[in-house]
Amino acid sequence: MGSKGWIKRVLPFFATFAVGIFIASFFVSVRPNVNGHGRWRMRQEMDRLQVENDDLRNENLRLRNSCHRHDLDLEMTGPDVPVPLEAPPPAMPHHPPRRDR
Known about the structure:
By secondary structure, the chain is mainly alpha-helical. It has two helices and no strands. Helices cover 62% and strands 0% of the residues.
């Protein structure tokens, strides 16, 4: 196979590869990240998400314990035992019956 045959086989491959990279560059960054700032930002984002996840886990446990305490309070008083109110509700105002004209 001479140099002409080699060029006929390799040139279309490289041309297709170059066109594919060009089209892909519209959708994805094909540049390598040389300065490393992307990795640093990713690490900061992971740390932030981990702290947020821990906060949410703690809040979830706090709410679950609060709900559990409320269930225990209901078990001690029972569902049939009325809970005393601080003050009786105000009386409804009495209006005289309406007269038809």
